[in-house]
Amino acid sequence: MRKKVIEIYQSGKGYKAISKALGLSRTTVRAIIYKWRKHGTVENLPRSGQPTKITLREQRQLIQEVTKDPTTTSKELQASLASVKKKNIIPTVKYGGGSVMVWGCFAASGPGRLAVINGTMNSAVYQKILKENVQPSVCDLKLKRTWVLQQDNDPKHTSKSTSEWLKKNKMKTLEWPSQSPDLNPIEMLWHDLKKVVHA
């Protein structure tokens, strides 16, 4: 738009004509032409004075905060900026850094055993975990004989060998719809645990 003002000005038109042609105020047209005559450009000039003290990251943080809640006060913004200053950031392992796989169980009466899985989980490992942890958990939680094992349709849980193992060890399982992790109560528990760990 600024360049267009200069083009029209160079063709001999006055402030009023330029203003009318481009739908700008005369004051704006005058300011653009003055800047062009004085500095030879209509682009933004480098600003004088002390450079900004906040980084681009901090600027993004402020914009995000105000976008989320436009009623944020300057004191709240200062506190938010202070929290992202380098000296307040605790370094963490980048790109996940690793993970721990665990198997756990619980009942209405409380949590059962938790088993750490080393290596790859397969049907044989899963059956070993069940053998070592389910019955002791049933005893610890004082469950009645009518307890039912609830597990999702993970291939390790539904493999032929696991199904036979469950039948041989008289462990009754709950029928489970496919592709329904949202129904699995332990997934909710893991979700809550992750939130606490990452907080």
Automatic annotation (TrEMBL):
All residue ranges annotated as the Tc1-like transposase DDE domain in the record: 98-197
Top-rank taxon: Eukaryota
Residue stretches making up the Sleeping Beauty transposase HTH domain: 1-43
A GO molecular-function descriptor: nucleic acid binding
Matches recorded under Pfam families: DDE_3, HTH_SB
InterPro entries for the chain: Homeodomain-like_sf (IPR009057), HTH_SB (IPR057667), RNaseH_sf (IPR036397), Tc1-like_DDE_dom (IPR038717), Transposase_5 (IPR052338), WH-like_DNA-bd_sf (IPR036388)
PANTHER family membership: SI:DKEY-77F5.3 (PTHR23022:SF135), TRANSPOSABLE ELEMENT-RELATED (PTHR23022)
Designated name of the protein: Tc1-like transposase DDE domain-containing protein
Source organism: Hemibagrus guttatus
